Amino acid sequence: MAKEVKQLRKQAEKAVRAAKEAADAEVSEELQALARAFQSQADVLKSKKGAGKKQQ
Fold first, then answer.
1. Structure pTM?
2. Is the separation of the CB atoms in 41 and 9 below 8 Å?
3. I need a labelling partner for 23 at 20 to 30 A (CA). Which of 17, 41, 48, 54 fits?
4. What's the DSSP call for residue 10?
5. Which is nearest to 34 in space by CA: 7, 10, 52, 11?
6. Three-state secondary structure along 13-56?
7. How many C-alpha atoms does 3 have within 13 Å on its Cβ side?
8. Can you tell me the distance from the alpha carbon of 41 to that of 17, in angstroms, rounded to the nearest whole number?
9. Is 12 in contact with 32 (CB distance < 8 Å)?
10. What's 1's DSSP letter?
């Protein structure tokens, strides 16, 4: 699961970089939203991983 979290965070970083480079404001906003979604998914996976360790 750590690998998935790392991949999601990398995708979020790529989306942020693309958003900064986008000439169109709407495209930039969509890429920023995508970055937040990737980050949120990574956070959820990480919290589930932590909760699983506590139960063991």
1. 0.84
2. no
3. 41
4. H
5. 11
6. HHHHHHHHHCCCHHHHHHHHHHHHHHHHHHHHHHHHHHHHHHHC
7. 0
8. 18
9. no
10. -
CA pair distance 10, 15, nearest whole angstrom: 9
End-to-end CA distance of the chain: 16
Distance CA 8, CA 19 (A): 16
SS3 12: helix
- Residues 6 or more apart whose CB falls under 8 angstroms from that of 14 comprise none
Residues present in the chain in total? 56
